[in-house]
Amino acid sequence: MIATFSRSDWLLLIAFIVIVLTLPWTMQPIGAAYPDLLQKFAIYGIFAIGFNILFGLTGYLSFGHAAFLGVGSYAALWSFKLLTMNVLPALALSIAVAGVFAFLIGYVSLRRSGIYFAILTLAFAQMSYNLAYSVLTPITNGETGLQVRAIRDSAATSLRDGDVRVIDQFLGIPEIGVPISNLFGMKMSGYSGFYFCAALLILGFFLALCISRSNFGMVLKAIKSNRNRLEYTGVNTRPYLIAAFVISGMYAGLAGSLLSITDPIAGAERMQWTASGEVVLMTILGGAGTLVGPVLGAGVIKYAEQKVSSWNEGILHNAVALLPEPLQDLLVWFFSFFVGEGWHLTLGLMFMIIVIFLPGGLMEGFRRLRRAFSGGRSADSAKTATTSTVQEKS
Amino acid sequence: MSFRNPSRRKVLKIGAAAGVTTLATPYFFSRGAFAQSMDYRNAPQGDSVTLGFNVPQTGAYADEGADELRAYQLAVEHLNGEGDGGMLNTFSSKALEGNGVNGKKVAFVTGDTQTKSDAARASAKRMIENDGALMITGGSSSGVAIAVQGLCQEAGVIFMAGLTHSNDTTGKDKRANGFRHFFNTEMTGAALAPVLKNAYGTDRKAYHLTADYTWGWSQEGSIKKYSEELGWETVDAVRTPLGAGDFSQYLTPVLNSGADVLILNHYGKDMVNSLTQAVQFGLRDKQVNGKDFAIVVPLYSRLMAQGAGEAVKGIFGSTNWHWSLQDEGSKAFVKSFGEKYGFPPSQAAHTCYCQTLLYADAAQRAGTFRPSEVGKALEGFDFDGLGNGPVLYRAADHQCFKDVLVVKGKENPDSQFDLLEVVEVTPRDQVEYPPELLGGELGPYNDGV
Amino acid sequence: MAVADIPTGETSEREFASGVPDKVLHIDDVHKSFAGLHALSNVDLDVRHGETHAIIGPNGAGKSTLLNVCVGRLPPDRGAVIFDGHVLTGKTPHEINQLGVARVFQTPEVFLDLSVLQNVMVPALSKRDGPFKLNPFAAFAGETEIRDEAEAVIASVGLADHMRDTASSLSRGDKRRLELAMCLIQHPKLLLLDEPTAGMARHDTNATIDLLKRIKEGGMTKVIIEHDMHVVFSLADRITVLAGGRIIAQGRPEEIKNNPKVKEAYLGEEQV
Amino acid sequence: MDAIFLQILNGLDKGGAYALIALGLTLIFGTLGVVNFAHGALFMLGAFCAVTLNRLLNTSFDRVNEAKVDFLGKPLVEKVPYLEQWFGPEVSGFLLDWSVPISLLLAVFVMALIGVAMERGLIKHFYNRPHADQILVTFGLAIVLQEIIRHFFGANPIPQPAPDIVAGAANVGGLLGLGDNVYYPWWRLIYFLFSALVIGGVFAFLQFTTFGMVVRAGMHDRETVGLLGINIQRRFTIVFGLAAVVAGVAGAMYTPILPPDYHMGMDFLVLSFVVVVVGGMGSLTGAVLAGFLLGILQSFASMTEVKSILPGIDQIIIYLVAVIVLLIRPRGLMGRPGVAED
């Protein structure tokens, strides 16, 4: 199977690995080189890659993927509370639970397509969110969020407030206060947490590349292209769609699990429809159907959420400190609409601009740039550029 | 809030300094520096110390967040010796001299919690990991406060909670590194009960509408406990979905339930909507069981009450602080806030200002920013002059104990800010409870090393 | 995609004696009406092994309905369609295809986002691997045998130069060739063609006729629905004439040409 | 019995609001084929028309009142509305009291303008783009619109009281002979009547005018209408304007029930989509039917009697109904096949 990668696929994979692993250095100039944001880049990158397997390949727009993210987080937390602080069981449990959950929702939702499918997934996710916030509080700890606690003294303490961690207790792993998630002793916060997420991001990217290049992936793309034709070609599209839905749900579960692993708390708002919308935006912003686009989109949105929102007027003033006072004030006044508390406005405008002018997302922007630079040389190179578009997309 | 305001600009520039320096410092260098002084997390290296103000800048509580941020900026100004000094002049502890803290200028970074636990933690992590903040403060909901408090405990910095009213913050979910100045539902219940008894008597039937999440339940529990002690009967307690918008389907059953008091355990937009609609349904003007029907909103926020407009008139509730208080501290705070921004501060602004001052004072008295030392300086600290009379920071649960205000919607307000009038100041000893009551465990301090 | 939503009716597979052994397709007394309007009534039709059978008729005669009944898109109200000993009635399109029935649409239906080679690989793999195979790691790029065959088929329809182009960049005529290639790779026992030259220029039409003639030499059974008499008489071995949902004539081309009933049905239609 | 009657009233009232938003949404979808995620924002903009009018009427100058002091102990600077200065307190008081109903005039004008501008400037370029693109660009627009509103009006809800005379509750029981225990707010009754009127008006407009006939024909088969040489484009613009006006007046009239804030559009967005989908994308009757159905079901699901059997049912009832309806009727209650399925 690996033999079927073309040379450009290998180059893409290697470039991806290099870029991801060097993020702590390359992100410094823009002030994003700190563990939490890097972790979020990787985690939401995984989420978006998985979402893209459904949306980018089959064209089915799910508005409920946050539900799987949330379920994955809760599953990981319960693994911490009941079994062990080691992250491997948590990962496995999250992916499995999210997969089962995705199968149930996908089995029902995929009976419909188009907007009806989107609303069905939205409805399931909103039901999960509403219930998790209120009546399911015994499992989710509602508004406060599920957290890791110290080992409970007696069975009278509820499992929400006191953990059992049977495996750790059995192995006699000592605990002081509230323990930290770890991979055989290596703690999963800070940079080690980032590299753990990065490794899984690379693995997830590699799997997505495999799927994209496989016969299975080709059928998924054919579904997007012309599902009716595919049925008359002897392909039963429904199991393919369910498989794609479950796989992308498992990616979401993995992402949710990593959220809990790097930061052991799980809240219901992760399942809200706006969170589902966020991953749609990430994917489209970067370029749906491309491999790198969703990761890029995830990075841009998380950066905006974390950094652009923190640029207050003071920072703006410093940024333009070399300019004369009145001009400074004018610039600061103008930009203060878009940064700090105005970062939502920036986000909204960014989407409008991307969707209006670059329907293929940022990746299409790069392609156009590349074409603009190579297009001057010969008609031939322009043609190669178009075919490489196909290559890239396929 | 004009950008031309010179004093504000100056503060902002200082505030930004920290952000920009760290922005430009490659992390390996800063890590190296950190490694040299493995004293405690984010020990300040230069001549300034960075605080992280984590408030909701987007979402339903954005206005509250904006007010908190104003208070923080004012506090930083006062700590650095600018402006009129505000409550520093009335504060009983005189450790702070208006030249920063421990000889270092105070700088700050800001972040947006979006009133979501995930976003709030991410934002706090940025301030700790990237901007070198060694204290995080702010927040406008209990879910967020508890989430960020847990994070600060893990990271090894101090958390000074902003507006959080749930018992859990300093109860079940309390942490050694976390401190709360704001009051809680338990105190609300204890403070409201006697006032309700005077106003409405002991023979009442109460109907609760409760926001269906932890804070709502906690509030409902406290009010039930204290009102039933009075002899009130609880007819029903109905849970309403968060953000329901239209509450009509929950209000109509109240009319025929035989209840004569409606208790709205809602906050924020839910409170505005349910109260507005309850009044529209004529509940405030009704007669039931031969008594005037009454509505009670246990936790009032003036900013939010503005949204309910006329509907708040005559409605009882509790609040942490109100700008119309006439003690020296409150007057000084209202003056310096009002002159800077042109309107009086909210209770959220007040608690955030106090928390910043209290932290700075504790660090000054401890002579270090090490969380464990600062924490010990705060534990059992008795102070006065910050607008609530004599206050104790209880060592056992890191909760402030002070008088609680019972307020009522004003019948004839003078201005748009003049919505509430203080009807009773319930003294501190009436709202105190044993620390074991709410459970939880502080655990050890974490200095982040 | 709406297919899955249509009630499938009686699906029990009855044993049907295939009767004459060289009958590939047997349409047995099929009725279909839409809102009281009889689109098909009493249609009996046999298609013999290896023949090219054309179904003609004026507009609204029920040709497309008949085809849709054959491929499982529409359930008949009564009667059955038997293919190669299997009852097709109530089966889904992909099941019918797996039995060996391939279909060319009226307007070329291909996978516009995929390359020409991929367009042909999809049916090739569905023939080999069945209606569903979950193996995200298997890629045809590594399977020379089946790929070589696909490339050969593509070359045979004259698209060798377009192997790596996306289907959306093809001309309409080329899309039709591609669709034919997609059917041919499956070596279907029966190929259904729905107006394969509709909307084509004369030049393209002739090229398509040539192509279909070549396939005919391979001995594949074909049913063609066609409007263009030039095409019909160039290709068909036998012709069935539908009018008003009923079969009015059946026979070899020359018989049909001279059938008065057919002339009557086509009265006013320029092509006869 | 009274309780059930009141819940039906609640449901009708809620349903009226849902139906009004969904009506415009499904109209836009049916004629223009556009999925408009900014429709909630239009509802919000309508509500802010009421706020704006109130602010305009309150435009005032400062007058120092030496007799009173402000919170800083300085002489109180009173805001005196120009209206009061010019026409005296009685007229200005009357205008302010009736500002919500009066704001309907403003809302009709402003929303028509916004609607036309939106269609000409943005939406028309998206007729042939995939639904996902339409969703995203209108979602982006919704964020931009609400952030602009937040910039000027803040994040807190702003109270907009109904006129005094209808601010209280009506003795519905007395009117209908059900006893004296059934009270219902006047304004909600008015809102229900208002929504019924607007819905009726829109239906009449589409049913009995030539314009409406063309639009309905366009909803049925856009290509054919285009082929007839009718300038469908101009009509689309008007339809979009109409939908914006319906959403806008629905929002303006809703302000006394729900004090408006910048985010209210998003709160209604998901709900209105569920209503449209349950009704069937592109079906006007479906949207109205689904609006009232969901409103009434939501009201009943909130009753303590129901909740004690199914805890949390009121949290999910809307979505649950959507799922059930879509699984039983693939295209919603009244949807046509082939619409919005790709």
From TrEMBL, chain A:
<feature type="transmembrane region" description="Helical">
    <location>
        <begin position="342"/>
        <end position="362"/>
    </location>
</feature>
<keyword id="KW-1003">Cell membrane</keyword>
<feature type="transmembrane region" description="Helical">
    <location>
        <begin position="193"/>
        <end position="220"/>
    </location>
</feature>
<dbReference type="Pfam" id="PF02653">
    <property type="entry name" value="BPD_transp_2"/>
</dbReference>
<feature type="transmembrane region" description="Helical">
    <location>
        <begin position="115"/>
        <end position="136"/>
    </location>
</feature>
<feature type="transmembrane region" description="Helical">
    <location>
        <begin position="279"/>
        <end position="303"/>
    </location>
</feature>
<keyword id="KW-0812">Transmembrane</keyword>
<keyword id="KW-0472">Membrane</keyword>
<feature type="transmembrane region" description="Helical">
    <location>
        <begin position="41"/>
        <end position="63"/>
    </location>
</feature>
<feature type="transmembrane region" description="Helical">
    <location>
        <begin position="83"/>
        <end position="108"/>
    </location>
</feature>
<dbReference type="InterPro" id="IPR001851">
    <property type="entry name" value="ABC_transp_permease"/>
</dbReference>
<keyword id="KW-1133">Transmembrane helix</keyword>
Automatic annotation (TrEMBL), chain B:
<keyword id="KW-0813">Transport</keyword>
<dbReference type="Pfam" id="PF13458">
    <property type="entry name" value="Peripla_BP_6"/>
</dbReference>
<protein>
    <submittedName>
        <fullName>Substrate-binding protein</fullName>
    </submittedName>
</protein>
<keyword id="KW-0732">Signal</keyword>
<dbReference type="InterPro" id="IPR051010">
    <property type="entry name" value="BCAA_transport"/>
</dbReference>
<feature type="domain" description="Leucine-binding protein">
    <location>
        <begin position="49"/>
        <end position="410"/>
    </location>
</feature>
<dbReference type="InterPro" id="IPR006311">
    <property type="entry name" value="TAT_signal"/>
</dbReference>
<keyword id="KW-0029">Amino-acid transport</keyword>
<dbReference type="InterPro" id="IPR028081">
    <property type="entry name" value="Leu-bd"/>
</dbReference>
UniProtKB/TrEMBL annotation, chain C:
<dbReference type="InterPro" id="IPR003439">
    <property type="entry name" value="ABC_transporter-like_ATP-bd"/>
</dbReference>
<keyword id="KW-0547">Nucleotide-binding</keyword>
<dbReference type="GO" id="GO:0005524">
    <property type="term" value="F:ATP binding"/>
</dbReference>
<dbReference type="InterPro" id="IPR051120">
    <property type="entry name" value="ABC_AA/LPS_Transport"/>
</dbReference>
<protein>
    <submittedName>
        <fullName>ABC transporter ATP-binding protein</fullName>
    </submittedName>
</protein>
<dbReference type="InterPro" id="IPR032823">
    <property type="entry name" value="BCA_ABC_TP_C"/>
</dbReference>
<feature type="domain" description="ABC transporter">
    <location>
        <begin position="25"/>
        <end position="269"/>
    </location>
</feature>
<dbReference type="Pfam" id="PF12399">
    <property type="entry name" value="BCA_ABC_TP_C"/>
</dbReference>
<keyword id="KW-0067">ATP-binding</keyword>
<dbReference type="InterPro" id="IPR003593">
    <property type="entry name" value="AAA+_ATPase"/>
</dbReference>
<keyword id="KW-0813">Transport</keyword>
<dbReference type="Pfam" id="PF00005">
    <property type="entry name" value="ABC_tran"/>
</dbReference>
TrEMBL record, chain D:
<feature type="transmembrane region" description="Helical">
    <location>
        <begin position="236"/>
        <end position="257"/>
    </location>
</feature>
<protein>
    <submittedName>
        <fullName>Branched-chain amino acid ABC transporter permease</fullName>
    </submittedName>
</protein>
<keyword id="KW-0813">Transport</keyword>
<dbReference type="InterPro" id="IPR052157">
    <property type="entry name" value="BCAA_transport_permease"/>
</dbReference>
<keyword id="KW-1003">Cell membrane</keyword>
<keyword id="KW-0029">Amino-acid transport</keyword>
<comment type="similarity">
    <text>Belongs to the binding-protein-dependent transport system permease family. LivHM subfamily.</text>
</comment>
<keyword id="KW-0472">Membrane</keyword>
<feature type="transmembrane region" description="Helical">
    <location>
        <begin position="15"/>
        <end position="34"/>
    </location>
</feature>
<keyword id="KW-1133">Transmembrane helix</keyword>
<feature type="transmembrane region" description="Helical">
    <location>
        <begin position="102"/>
        <end position="123"/>
    </location>
</feature>
<keyword id="KW-0812">Transmembrane</keyword>
